[in-house]
Amino acid sequence: MTRIGIIGYGNLGRGVECAVKYADDCELAAVFTRRNPADVKLQLQDVPVLSVDEIEQWEGKIDVMILCGGSATDLPVQTPKFAQMFNVVDSFDTHAKIPEHFKAVDEAAVKGNHVAIISVGWDPGMFSLNRVYANAILPDGKDYTFWGKGVSQGHSDAIRRIKGVKNAKQYTIPSQEALEAVRSGKNPELTTRQKHTRECFVVLEEGADATAVEKEIKEMPNYFADYDTTVHFISEEELKNNHSTMAHGGFVFRSGKTGMNKENSHIIEYSLKLDSNPEFTTSVLVAYARAAHRLAGEGHKGCKTVLDIAPAYLSPKSGEELRATLL
Amino acid sequence: MTRIGIIGYGNLGRGVECAVKYADDCELAAVFTRRNPADVKLQLQDVPVLSVDEIEQWEGKIDVMILCGGSATDLPVQTPKFAQMFNVVDSFDTHAKIPEHFKAVDEAAVKGNHVAIISVGWDPGMFSLNRVYANAILPDGKDYTFWGKGVSQGHSDAIRRIKGVKNAKQYTIPSQEALEAVRSGKNPELTTRQKHTRECFVVLEEGADATAVEKEIKEMPNYFADYDTTVHFISEEELKNNHSTMAHGGFVFRSGKTGMNKENSHIIEYSLKLDSNPEFTTSVLVAYARAAHRLAGEGHKGCKTVLDIAPAYLSPKSGEELRATLL
User: Fold this and answer.
1) Minimal CA–CA distance to B315: which of A124, A126, A267, A132?
2) Contact A132 B326 (CB under 8 A)
3) In chain B, which residue's Cα lies nearest the Cα of A308?
4) Count of CB contacts below 8 A, A vs B?
5) What is the ipTM, given to two decimal places?
6) Closest Cβ–Cβ partner in B260, B315, B324 for A135
7) How far is the C-alpha of B296 from the C-alpha of A322, rounded, in Å?
8) What's the average model confidence in pLDDT over B245-251?
9) What is the pTM for the complete model shown?
10) Are A314 and A64 contacting, i.e. CB atoms less than 8 angstroms apart?
11) Upstream peptide bond of B124 is cis (omega within 30 degrees of 0)
12) What are the backbone dihedrals phi and psi of residue B153, each rounded to the nearest 5 degrees, phi first?
């Protein structure tokens, strides 16, 4: 049995709670929160909710802590801090800052003699795995990653910061034409604009200037200026009723050549179609929590990513069972 | 540098020769054959071809031997034999006999203090990996594997053994309808007949009875009786011109549920579209040869499968580079 703790009870925390329910060899031991524990109502009844300040008392009682905070400000502090006390798994997803995060977590985990697995989820995570496998197999080739259709939290936030905007959701949508060109082996050179479109659903403050808001969205550098962007103005009620989906997904392709004269083409495609982004992410987190527990049991320590962990560690089945049934 | 040896110079041997060409950190050291070495002409000029009887003289001069024989009779003998002398990688693909093969190879490799990686390729191989990852992430779900469109060697051979048949090729074709049902999350229960169809191109001996041959094919137990099978009679020339493709591919799906009440569905799809089955298989073999060399360098020994090896071992890039570029 792997005794799992949750730190932070938002969408990810709730997702871990669900995922543990379906993992027969895992149990949820406790949930830690920065809020008043009395204010946190779990979906499952019989698990204690505690203040994160009491966490040290749980050393030795929890095999793996799953960190469910955000990548912007929570995880850069929490993962190194708690890796000194526990085996930990996080879903740190700021790609550009992974090397820095890895270094801080590795130092802490080595010091604490624990295993830490960072950047677990689907991108980074399962998409990364697929990029690495496919690049190793087809060294002469091209990579393509598409995201969506799904809500981008970062882009929605960027719209919400515009003056006159009350609320907003932004969908990232992969271009079907681009997907088909890649899938058919055409190896297209795709600009940012050709890969994805962006669709925005915006609720205005009373008296706000719709034309000005639309212009500001469409011209926003980095976020929207390089994309074909559509803006719809809707009511708060419509936003709530029709745009609270957590669905997401995406595609990773590698298109490569083999043969003495590069005469043969190959396409490797991996795709996800997810009803719930946080529940899928946390399902991956729980599988890697199992791996962290096992690795720690074998005497490993320090920071790892999904690239450093053999697939068999994620499965509750033994090597013998896996070879007989899934190999 | 990983110095690679090839044992057996057929389609797979030629494929390894190509794959090594694109792997900057690998070099082909020698090719070993059971034929008269003078009769074997390589695609690359500057590599020695030797009799497999001389192989013992190469101990210490080759980092990994890639075994390019067949699963029916070659590999069950060769892999355990050569694992005592070298690190080895094979593509043993008789799923039902993997546990037995693993045991024999493990004993030999441990005795010889070498690393052996068996059942490397795409199924078993990349498809197996995807089944294991997806099962670990979505414990509550269903697996689907489809093969094709591509020539099945086993089914083609079965047709060739029929009296009156001079030559034959058999294509395994996944049903588009079944694929779409799985992809859309319908979780269909599919019979063998609903998943794949079989198309046969047959050259008859002079005077053979076409009707009798067609009946014998369609009623052949295990191979064809459970499928919708189409038989075309063609000339030897037509077979040679239009049906010598080595293209293949396939799809692995897992369709699973999450949520407190299983309210959310997720589809994981992995697919391959390959111009050359042997060249893709050998590209995977060479990536795992790199892993075998590294694992042996770290002091590992014994038999492993793709499930036991972390993705990072397959890549020529360092952990640091991988985290910065592909994670």
Assistant:
1) A132
2) yes
3) B310
4) 213
5) 0.96
6) B315
7) 23
8) 96
9) 0.96
10) no
11) yes
12) -65, -45
